[in-house]
Amino acid sequence: MKRSQALDAVRGIAILLVLIWHYLPRRSVITPEWLLTSTSMFWSGVDLFFVLSGFLIGGILLQNANSKNYFSTFYIRRAVRILPLYVLILLVLIMVIYWAPAFIAQSSKAHLPLWSYLTFTQNFLYAAKQRFNDPWIDVTWSLAVEEQFYIFLSLLVWKLDKRKLSIVTITLILLAPVLRFFAPNNMVAYLFPFHRADSLMLGVLLALIWQWDKGKEFLYKYVRVFRWSFVFFLLGTAYLTYRRVWVGDVVGHFCLALFYCNFIVLALIQTDQKKRFDLFNNKILEWFGLRSYGIYLFHKPVQILIPLLIAQYLSDDLSIWIVIAIYTIVLFIVTEISYRFLEKPIMVWGHRFKYDSLESRREEVIQPRLV
Prior knowledge:
- Helices cover about 70% and strands about 0% of the residues.
- By secondary structure, it is mostly helical.
- The two termini are about 35 Å apart.
């Protein structure tokens, strides 16, 4: 799929929600109570990532389902995008554990085994232990869920026609809250892939509708309904904030998924409508969106490491807000370097792997090559 500035802006909003959630001190002694309350649902930035990922990955798979190199191209491109930075973060963590353990908040015995990160199964181990063991890289649980989702969805799209795929998609969306209801604890409800299928598969359902001519026509025709429903969902999210809904909530994730799906619909529809202030054509949000993967992986290590270095080499009595400002600036610098000199060049190289077009495959069937 072609890159969309509007969806980059949506991704930028998602990473800002995550960043504010983790960087804002969650103590009323430091942060005003009204600010803590108003940002108490910002942990749901991951839910927005899930819906957006379902839409984008689902769209890519649907567009290329008939390619004969469907699996190889998809997995190579995903590996090129995900693995370089992910492996780099793991290597840095391993070096710190063995050579500078003082910079780790917990002892090395508390860390999950390396194989769980290499196999993208850390979400299951976190759920089994009912806690996040690795403060440096605990956010990678969401990458594990998405990798498991990629494998499952690629098989679904390859095996089923769009009608059957739609039925399975809707079934999984409705099944997810039921699974959360019967989950033994909130960690299982939050970290298991099928328990989060309402967020991921709502994005896939939107991709199915968006790539169906009548479906896209319906979205454009009733855009006013989506604008009003956005207000309704916004009020609903305010109510969830008032209730202090927490991760793994049975109904909360489902409502958030609907809200974020509605938000993405507005981003898709309003892309062509130029306005004086357009949230979806905001250059700052686009910057965050393009660098969101690096920000997501780097923000916890930077948050842990920089204050320790400041206390050791500069001063241990700086205001917490100054310290936050320093490691936020460091995060943006590290992320920009990573994006320009590592992520972007590798992504450009990865896009040399092309899906064969449907037309070329048809020609091959009609006129088979001579051996």
